[in-house]
Amino acid sequence: MKKGPEAEALERAAIFMMSLNSDDAAKLLKYLGPKEVQKLGMAMVNVDKVDNKTVHQIYNDFILETESQTSIGLNKDEQIRKVMIGALGEDRANSIIDKILVGNNSGIDALKWMDSKSIADIIHLEHPQIQAIILSYLEPEQAAEVVMCLDEKVRLDLIMRISMQESIQPAALDELNRIMDKQMSASKVTHPKLVGGLKCAANILNYIEPAIETDLMEALREKDEQLATQIQDLMFVFNNLLNIDDRGIQTLLREIKTDTLVVALKGAEPDVKAKIFKNMSKRASALLQDDLEAKGPVRISEVEKAQKEILTIAKGLADAGKITLGVRSEEMI
Question: Which of 10-19, 92-101, 260-269 has the lowest average pLDDT?
Fold first, then answer.
């Protein structure tokens, strides 16, 4: 199976990093986020037996790419400090620099570097509202992993709290600082910071395992049908593939394993199936339809898992600018 563009780029980056000395590689890693470092680290572990021709080609491509770029954005925190101090003087500048850089210096960023189980262990005894605040700050995928590590009895309450919260007052940020036992510059901010909300809850649910997501949504619908509907409308579900244009579907299909597609389509709506068949060659479409007919009964959990895998690939392609998910999905991202 041919590797997708994201997997291929990750492998090339891993080879490039492995070819550098440790000091230079460490300097580059400083500019990556927690999730990027994790993915790159895993790719570096898998690097094995790379020929000279491949390394030379990667270096040539890197040189061509960097020649078209500038250094703007690198080491930006230090650059901002120098500019502000030069323009306002050190005393006046220092009073507002922390506010400008609050997103980079926030103590909660430390959690983004931890594994999900460790985060769950830290917050599981805290007040549910504090848990909801922390989850809202994390990337949706990481937050989903943390939710799955928590007791299933609290999951519904957390999703509802995340959906309904809109801001964090300074007192809540102070409490968050106490939890992490680390001074956080964001505690000095006098204006509430927007976190959580319906989109945040929908994003987290998008990454939760299908069986758990289904249970959560059913329980949420029983407790607050209107809230459940609002969240469902913002989630990226399999039927949203209809919102992707034909070229995007064709790009997506190139990244999906046939076996996964067959299982996913067993539970798909007719319109979605038609969209898929339309964007394949006649021969490929006929073979896929034959596979669908030959495939026996499939468990709902297997269908949901396959569909979620395809949706994850679609979101990855959208993040890379390869496809557009459509109006409703774009609003969620």
Answer: 92-101
Burial class (CB within 10 angstroms; exposed 0-12, middle 13-18, buried 19+) of 85: middle
Q: d(Cα 131, Cα 123) in Å, to the nearest integer?
A: 6
Report the distance separating Cα 145 and Cα 161, nearest Å. 17
Nearby residues of 244 by Cβ (< 8 Å), 6 or more positions away: 252, 314, 323, 324, 325, 326
Q: What are phi and psi of 266, to 5 degrees?
A: -60, -30
Provide the CATH topology of domain 236-332: Annexin V; domain 1 (1.10.220)
CA distance 50 to 52: 7
Domain ranges of the chain: 5-67, 74-100, 107-232, 236-332
Express each pLDDT in 152-192 by its tens digit: 889 999 999 999 887 777 676 666 766 665 433 333 334 45
Q: What is the rounded CA–CA span in Å between residue 293 and residue 287?
A: 10
**185 CB-side CA count, 13 A:** 15
Global model pTM greater than 0.70: no
Structure-token match 């570096």, residue found:
44
CA dihedral for 263, 267, 268, 273, sign (positive or negative): positive
Three-class DSSP category at 168: strand
Residue 56 tokens read as 């030379």
Neighbouring residues of 232: CB distance < 8 A, sequence distance ≥ 6: 202, 217
CA dihedral (132, 138, 142, 144) positive or negative: positive
Q: Which element (helix H / strand E) includes 104?
A: helix 102-105
The backbone torsions φ and ψ at residue 197, rounded to the nearest 5 degrees and listed phi first, read: 95, 175
107-232 topology per CATH: Annexin V; domain 1 (1.10.220)
Task: Summarize pLDDT for 247-263 with one digit per residue, the tens.
Answer: 999 999 999 999 999 99
Own/partner pairs for 70-76, CB < 8 Å, 24+ apart? 74/31
Domain 107-232 and domain 236-332 have a common topology: yes
